[in-house]
Amino acid sequence: QVQLVESGGGSVQPGGSLRLSCVVSVDIASIDILGWYRQAPGKTFDSVALIFKDGTIDYRDSVKGRFTISGDNAKNEVYLEMNNLKSEDTAVYYCNAYRRVNGLGKTFRGQGIQVTVSS
Known about the structure:
The chain is mainly beta. Helices cover 0% and strands 55% of the residues. It starts with a strand and ends with a strand.
């Protein structure tokens, strides 16, 4: 079982910045895919930024150049630095972990945290 707890959300004006943090209950080096998803009202559940076990990082096109994902293995935490925020970034953001154990994969997700970008 993997538990994830997000923090750092809130409200910000367009052009502002926020940093999301996610505490992971296991060694993040054991996670196959770790990262952030988001869902806006009436919209799909979309990946935002992902770190793969081999070190590859993938960003959603709309956040490239504005968002940065990083991890701290010593603290078992993953972060999402969000700059130049836009109204379309408004959503509930979820920390998400996919881990394979004995050949079986399972997804774990935090409770979600609200990010609101509005003037």
